[in-house]
Design goal:
- This protein is mostly helical.
- The chain has one domain.
């Protein structure tokens, strides 16, 4: 049961990390230094958590792949267009 819980946590952490990447790119491209720096810190925070999660169990790369797809897809799909 713990492996399933770990997979769910890693899935959501990766989805959030990819969403943060999109926000970082958006703020950096707009020249907003302080918000971009904040999002950069969040990228590495979530990225480190994800890496720690799959280092000991390479099967955790499956939820990493699914989470990264879902995070990017949903962020772009749900983004409000001006």
């Amino acid at each position: 049961m713990k492996i399933l819980a770990d997979a769910v946590v890693i899935f959501f952490m990766t989805a959030i990390a990819d969403s943060i990447w999109a926000k970082y790119i958006e703020t950096a491209a707009a020249g907003q230094a302080l918000p971009a720096a904040f999002w950069s810190c969040m990228i590495f925070t979530f990225g480190a958590g994800v890496t720690i999660g799959y280092v000991n169990n390479h099967w955790m790369l499956i939820p990493v792949l699914l989470g990264s797809f879902a995070g990017t897809y949903l962020t772009i799909k749900l983004r409000k267009k001006p």
